[in-house]
Amino acid sequence: MRIAQISTLSAPVRRETGGSVESLIGLLTRELVRLGHEVTVFGTAGSEVEGELVATLPGPYGAKGSLDDWHLCEWVNLCRAVGQSDRFDVLHSHAYLWGILLEPFSRAPMVHTTHIVPDDNSARLWEMAPQSSVTALSKQQWSAYPKLRPMAVIPHGVETEQFTFSDKPGDYVCYLGRFTSGKGPLQAIEAARALGLRLVMAGPENSYFRERVKPLVDAGTVEYVGYVGGTDRDRLLGGAKVLLYPVQFPEAFGLVLVEAMLCGTPVAAMRVGAVPEIVDDGITGYTAGSREEFLQAAAQCVRLDRQRIRRHAERRFGAERMARDYARVYEDVVARK
Predict the structure, then answer these.
(1) Which domain holds residue 299?
(2) Between 20 and 30 A from 289 (CA), which of 50, 119, 279, 327?
(3) What's the order of all strands across the beta sheet hosting 285-288?
(4) 200 and 126 assigned to the same domain
(5) Structural domains in the chain (count)
């Protein structure tokens, strides 16, 4: 098939990038090419993709020569792809659900995936064109709108070889992610201290970190190591006894959970959002519904078989599985048209 992948424009599409969606699109593109498909990516200049790149802007939002308004950047990219739609069998838009509005102008069928928790506006947009082909990252993602049923639920895939299995973790548990109240960094600190465990925290510094988290950092019990990527991220996850994931608000998916599992590291997580669909209790970690249960979950995780965790994550979240799932969706959409 001739497939167009329409990226978001917060970063270039490549393996090491500042945007998780763009990284995912790069991985999906690579796997689709390996399956024998012709893939074209619509994204920013500087993207590194297998297949063809159509660089619609010279850089991400606000970059030199680009546009300051991120909405305009996304619309430029979407419109450029739809304008070339006669070149493809199917277009897959990752730009929220905005592409639904352009379907009447597309000469090839479209598939839409939003990578965030949808709001009422997203739901109303889909309701305007209920025949649209929308996929979900988890069953939970669209659960607030039971009348809207995605044509497929396709969890994220990960480049499993990028994460190194570690059978001998260090003496710490870790928190890895953005510093927001919804991610639960304060709850992670509280849990680690209650259990008498050293906590290593990583993520980009922001105002919430400086105001709420930094005052609690103590070299003896709570260590902050800044933003980590690549081999440093791999090393941090693999060296942890447990990944603490006390998320407070629902998320459509939690990629860091999979990354930890691929290192053999079990996950202690709050039973919120897509977490129960990612963490298999008693196999790759434990989930909790309260503070007390979370403490118990973290304590239980250290007894899990790390080799079994890795094998289970490989089977469930490999990149090739993701690409094959999407390829089946594309085939169904083309056949329907």
Answers:
(1) 160-316
(2) 119
(3) 222-224, 198-202, 172-176, 240-245, 267-270, 285-288
(4) no
(5) 2
Do 168 and 134 have their domain in common?
no
Instruction: Please give the pLDDT value at position 219.
Output: 73
User: Within this chain, do residues 96 and 220 fall inside the same structural domain, yes or no?
Assistant: no
pLDDT in tens, 88-116: 999 999 999 999 999 999 999 999 999 99
116 and 224: one domain?
A: no
**CATH value at residue 36:** 3.40.50.2000
**How many whole angstroms separate alpha carbon 324 and alpha carbon 184?**
34
Same domain, yes or no: 22 and 147:
yes
Distance CA 136, CA 250 (A): 14
Residues 141 and 287 in one domain: no
Whether residue 52 is found in the same domain as residue 125:
yes
Q: In what order do the strands lie in the sheet with 133-136?
A: 52-57, 38-44, 2-6, 90-93, 110-113, 133-136, 152-153
Q: In angstroms, rounded to a whole number, what is the distance separating the alpha carbons of residues 47 and 58?
A: 10
Q: How many other CB atoms are found less than 10 A from the CB of residue 277?
A: 17
53 and 65 in a common domain: yes
Q: How far apart are CA 302 and CA 109, in angstroms?
A: 48
